[in-house]
Amino acid sequence: MKQIKIKGGNILSGDINISGAKNSAVALIPASLLSDEEVRIDNIPNISDIDALNEILEYLGASVKRDGSLMIIDSHNIKNKKIPESISKKLRASYYFMSALLGKYKRVEMYFPGGCSIGTRPIDQTLKTFRALGATVIEDGNKYTITADKLVGTTIQLDMPSVGATVNTLLVAVRAEGETILKNAAKEPEIVSVATFLNQMGAKIVGAGTSEIRIEGVDYLGSCFTEVIPDRIEAGTYLIAGALIGKDLTIRNMIPEHISSLTSKLKEMGCKLKIGKDYITISKSDNLTPVKIKTLGYPGFPTDLQQPITTLLTQVNGTSILEETIYENRFQNVPYLNQMGSNIEIKERTIKIKGPTKLVGATVEATDLRAGACLVLAGLVAEGETTVTEIKHVLRGYENIIEKLQNVGAKIELEEI
Length: 417
Ligand code: EPU
Hints:
Helix content is 32%, strand content 27%. By secondary structure, it is α+β, with helices and mostly antiparallel strands. It folds into 2 domains: 2-18 and 287-416, UDP-n-acetylglucosamine1-carboxyvinyl-transferase, Chain, CATH 3.65.10; 22-226, Enolpyruvate transferase domain (UDP-n-acetylglucosamine1-carboxyvinyl-transferase, Chain). A hairpin with a 2-residue loop joins strand 19 and strand 20. Helix 1 runs parallel beside helix 2, helix 1 runs parallel beside helix 7 (189-201) and helix 10 (306-313) runs parallel beside helix 12 (369-381). It binds uridine-diphosphate-2(N-acetylglucosaminyl) butyric acid. Uridine-diphosphate-2(N-acetylglucosaminyl) butyric acid binds at residues 23, 26, 92-93, 116, 119, 121-126, 160, 162-165, 186, 302-304, 326-327, 369-370, 397.
């Protein structure tokens, strides 16, 4: 078992380079199966979620070469086999294989995907899309057999702008006959990256990044090269670290516009930021003021930064209110923060954070990826030593988090126990 030990109170100063976005890379890799030629994806982050997708690619018989952050995938010889539950449940993004295989072979057999336990996370919108495009879905417990004689484009309206259902629609509709119009689509930058990737292979997708996407089906998808966009959630997490305990901490290789919902909240709180074209410099400021935050789909405040920013809100003067509208179980970090000294009350989907409170080191558990990030941030600012257990969740999504933080002055070590 791996855990992290942090000695709190050390100022973070210097540069942190942002890696490729987990939630873009985990969609591009399954999308590559739709190509009948070799595809090359650079800036792939070295995180365990990517290893899990690699395992699925290799299980299906794809040839995968990895050279640093470059991944070369040739899947023209793959076999459309049932993906075992033991690998599909390792991560949420495994179900992008459901749609890529359905799009390519008109048949797929696989199990309910995994992912952080932050809510029920149903897949009804994805299944609704498959059915609308002409597929038959047979559900047997958590196993799905999905077949189609032919896939035909149509107009689909999502009940909510789901990232997963939007990506899955793209991956099937690119190989359907005729035009699909997806309404109430998610607008996250990761959606744009998947559409751009597919277009480079020869797809005809317009409107990605808006709530209406039009996809004209094509018969063949070929080779292409793409680079994964910078991880806006990783960038946001380190910016919050800078607001907590930074002195001229510069977050580089990022797209500031992708986290403008965070930077505008930080400014509202009184943080001083220098925003460049592809970097932001931040230092800790005194006398931060409380804010109200409500999580929303892009370009709203991302749910994935809700837990990390909670740590910062424990340090401001006054009561902040944070409403989580996306997931019903994304406050598992709160009891641990309270154990470290914060004063946070949970009421249904809202938390009330009374600050400022002194945080003191403790042994706390990373119950999920972003809860873990929140607790690492708490450890950086806490007095004394913090141990964050179950760190595997954090390593699923943050490339080289230990080294990146050590390089800017944090006293943080990975321990194997
Ligand atoms: N929803 C449904 N039915 C569906 C799909 C979604 O009810 O068929 C609900 C969900 O339960 C949730 C909301 O709609 O309440 C939004 O879910 P969405 O489908 O947008 O999320 P996702 O695709 O499962 C991705 C990211 C998450 C991120 C969300 C929201 C990946 C692999 N995961 O999840 O990332 O929180 O979008 O931005 O891209 C993380 O990185 O820590 C993480 C959880």
